[in-house]
Amino acid sequence: MAITPTDTLTYDVRDSVAYVMMNRPKSMNALNRELQRAIAEAFEQADADPGVLAVVLGGEGGRAFCAGGDLKDVASRIESGESITGGASKTVKAHPKVAKPGTLPGMDQVNACSKPTIAAIDGYAMGGGLELALYCDIRLATRQSQFALPEPKRHLLSGPAFVHLSRMIPLGEAMYMELTGRRLDAERAFKFGLVQEVYDTRDDLNKGVEAVLAEIRENSPLAVQFLKRVIKDGRDMTVEQHWKFAEMFAYTLENTEDALEGPKAFAEKRKPEWKMR
Known about the structure:
The protein has about 280 residues and is an alpha/beta fold. About 45% of the residues lie in helices and about 15% in strands. The chain has helices at about 35-50, 70-80, 105-110, 130-135, 160-170, 170-180, 185-190, 200-215, 220-235, 240-255, 260-265; strands at about 10-15, 15-20, 55-60, 65, 115-120, 125, 140, 145-150, 185, 195-200. α1 links the parallel β2 (about 15-20) and β3. α5 (about 160-170) runs antiparallel to α6 and α9 runs antiparallel to α10. It starts with 8 loop residues before the first strand and ends in a 10-residue tail after the last helix.
C-alpha cells in the first residue's frame, strides 16, 4: 500500500527504518483527521514492508512532538454530531455503540505494528500526542519536552491513556497526570519510566535514536518481533498463561533457519546474517 500524498506527514525509509514525521509545525503537529489518516497509512505500510525492521515516529518544527487533538477540528466534529471517539454519532438515541479505548485512526495502527517502534519526542507531547507516544515501544525525549493529559480541562476524557498509563507508570503518577492535567517535564517523566532516555538537544536525540536502532538491528528481527508480541499481549495474563503463550513463539523460533544462524555466528566470531525465516 502506498502512502497517500499529504502535507501533514513525511514518510521515509532509510537503512531498514521507516521514519514517520508529523508535519504540521504551525499547529504544533496537532491531530486532525488528515494527519490521523496519514499516520494510520504510514504504520500500515511500514508493518507490511519486509524491508522495514523498525519505525521512528517524530514531529517537525522543534516546538512539539504532537500537541494533541486539533481542538478546532474536534469542535467542528461535535457540532456536526460526529463522534470524536470512533463510536456512534451523538444523534443516535437508543443503545449507542461505545467505542473501545484507543479505537482512533492512527493510534490503532501504531499499537498494532509488529515492528519495534520508537517515539522521538522533542517539545510538547500533550493529550493525543502523548497517547501516540504511549503506544510506541520506546520513548526518547529532549530535555525541553513536556508531557500532559489536559483533556478534562476541555470536558473530555483521555483516550487510551486512561487504560495504559497506569499499567506503565506508578498509579499515583498516572492519577496525578490525569486528574490535574498538569504539564510534567522530561526529568520527572524519565524518573518514573514514562520516557527511557533524556537528551540535551534535538541533535543529541537523533543520535540517541540511531544508537538504539543500531542495538535493535544487531538482534534477530524475528526474535524481536516475537518478543514484542509476547510482552504486549501477555502482560494482562497470569504468570502461567504468559509462560504458555511465550512457549508457542519459542517453539516457532526454534524451527526457523535463523535458530541455527545465531549460535553458529557466535561460535565463528562473526555477525549473524539473519534470513528472517
